[in-house]
Amino acid sequence: MPPAAMSRRHLLRGVGAGALAVAGGALLAACGSATTASSTASSGAASGTVGLQLVFIKNVQFAGSFFADQNGYWKNLGLNVNLMAGGPNLTVEPVVQSGKALVGITHTAQAVKAIINGADLQIIGAGFQKNPFVLISRAAAPIKTPQELAGKKIGVQALDLPVFTAFLTANKIDKSTFTIVPLQSDPTPLVTGELDGIMGFYSNEPNFLRIKGVEPYNLLFDNFNYPLMEEAYIVKKSNLQDTAKRAQIVALMQGESKGWLDAVASVDKAADLAVNNYGKDLKLDVSQQVLAMKSEVDLVVTPDTKTHGLFWMTDTLINGTVNSLKLGGVEATKDMFTLDVLNDVYKGKATV
Fold this sequence. Notes:
Strand order of the largest sheet: 2-1-3-10-4
Order of helices and strands: HHEHHEHEHEEEHEHEHEEHHHHHH
Distance between the termini: 38 Å
Structural class: alpha/beta
Number of strands: 10
Radius of gyration: 19 Å
Shape: globular
Helix content: 40-55%
Number of helices: 15
Largest sheet: 5 strands, mixed
């Protein structure tokens, strides 16, 4: 499996056993009502140098940020934004809490867990509007519903088991009706037919199979009672009460929105920026990055974002996420989410 892609998924799954068992559990509920309180737009233009802490390496996952920087969207808004690479050994929340980064992109469950533990943070948007976890089978022998797991052999990695178990619970599927087989990071057993399906990440394993010449069938957890927002944007809650900091946050998200509009409209250019510019030292594979970006568009753009704007968190999305996370036993409150920033970004429109 392409190492960059696989490592990215490992990072999310690591949040899986701890915070994603969290994921099985508690993400939060409340963007809608808690976030619809009208916000007072910051007076004065934004200015200064700020940090945007990424949750992973500079690959196509952050294409919108690359476009925002490359096309001068932040500069035009008065900001100099330092794109701070993340990785498997970096936790985003302390970086934002400490003030080293103004905004962070992180895993939703991890952000919620930090807030529960006392961090002065709020979630202000979600890049992935759909749960990125999938059950992958071969298109020639597809598993189209959870009920069709009966009698099958399904590969699941150890760190994924809490999420997979929560998904089964959400769909009232008895684990005794099929066989769960321990899976390593390599999805080849699905290619060879040793397994009927594997649990994976929408922008990773399916694309690996395509590169191998095997067309996958993806059963999105999101479509079967297990919605979950991901790629959460977080800020210090106290910064939203500071006029200058708030103006910077709004401007950063305005540029981010413009950048992501460019990214979803130009997949090939997004991959090129990742491979030949921002992630040049990583020796990324351009074909893999193109496929990953195409997959991410499916998670980023939805009817809700077309109506309200990118990163928007509707009541339905929040409530669905909360219900999914509760399956893992983690509780959260609606005031962990706020739409105040996005209300200022879009001002009632769907684009900046």
